Amino acid sequence: xxxxxxxxxxxxxxxxxxxxxxxxxxxxxxxxxxxxxxxxxxxxxxxxxxxxxx
Length: 54
Hints:
By secondary structure, this protein is mainly α. It has 2 helices and no strands. The chain has one domain (4-52). The two termini are 17 Å apart.
């Protein structure tokens, strides 16, 4: 995973999942922006939790 060093850094700083900036290039007419943003936030929050529990 290309952003694992970032996740590790955030986990080490005790950053709480909540705010996230999502950059996506899918067509909003095909892929609902809210649904995909929510999926990305859930995924990133899960990565932070897993990294903290290591």
